[in-house]
Design goal:
Belongs to the protein kinase superfamily. This protein is of the alpha+beta class and 457 residues long. The protein is 44% helix and 12% strand. The longest helix is centred in the N-terminal third of the chain and has 63 residues.
Amino acid sequence: MAVSGAGGGGFVLLPLLVVAVVVLERSATVLLADAARVPLTDVSSPPAPSPAADAPSLPDVVAVSPSAAARIQNEGDKRYQKQVLIAVILALVGVIVMAVSATYARTFWRKARQALDSNDIKLQNRGNGQMLLPVLGKLNSNKMSNKEVIAMMDFSVLETATGKFNEKHILGKGGFGCVYRASLDGGVVAAVKKLNCCRQEIETEFENELDFLGKIQHPNVISVLGYCIHEDTRLLVYELMQNGSLETQLHGSSNGSALSWHIRLKIALDAARGLEHLHEHCNPFVIHRDIKSSNILLDSDFNAKISDFGLAINGGNHNKDDQNPSGTVGYVAPEYLLDGQLTEKSDVYAFGVVLLELLLGRKPVEKIGDSHCQSIVSWAMPQITDRTKLPDIIDPVIRNTMDLRHLFQVAAVAVLCVQPEPSYRPLIADVLHSLVPLVPVELGGTLRIVDEPHQTG
């Protein structure tokens, strides 16, 4: 009989308790029967009359005093009690052993069934090429889908869902392809990244993305819903992030107008949480290698999620002689760009650049004249460390809307993250702990706002 659910243990232990009662009852019955067969001398009764005087003489019998008889009886009683106690202990030990064995067998059975079910799902999903979208209902970016199994989707389904990849459904464009809005069956709206694999590196990044996002589950890491391989085209299907990327919000037509001071800190906190999961909780830990504002996506509530794992790598498994520096200009750490030295501190540097973008509203690299470019780091460092100048270089959208103490704290974190020497940079976990007290409770931090924000003039 199969046992499942939380109540399974009760059905297993009930027979064991019955067995224990039967064992104890039988042990007590045997011991009482043994005791009944032992003659007890009544010390208060007079001796029986002797046979006739002319009967043959019998050997002499040693007389037992009443006190000695009582002592013998007490010793016998103690001996029987000891035997009963030993029998009870042995019976209890037997019950415990049976209970542990039954629990272990039940746990082993459940794990074996789960493993078989998981293998069946994988074989089914990999084998038929039809759309096997998990039951998601309406997507909510605060809920995580099961990414241990990524569904293979049929090309015709995705083609229909995107209006045959119509330009009016384009959400964004990248170096290797476009991202389209897709309306799937059941009212599910998703984002489809279409890659044209004209080069081997695109195929490699596609496989890398599937590998990492199939394992990583975190509220601040993008969820992948499915994939498709069709001739030279590779497609990845993600949950839809309604507010696009942080880059679009900051540097697009709105110029950051939808991002208040606290929303910006919330985005930084969410990104730090996602990155902290990669660095501290994945085994082996993961170096993203391409943290930037365009890879931080925002849902309808401005919850931020890290995306694009095409360049990600497992920490400790790389050889700097075999790895060409990868990333985006303006975000790449100097030690990685110059010497190929790659650590999790490289991601911290890129996160610091994003933090500067949030504070200053400037792009990571901007042109100065016709032939010269300047990075946000080199432009900001002489001014951001000066408290008298810092309020004047803040993004005009949020200028004079925050407590200056909080501004100085965030600026200090950004400065530490973009230090040229990696050992001087903090761990992302330390960055996370520094940001939590600055974000309101309702946005995921611990800050409780009592009065109106202090206006600086």
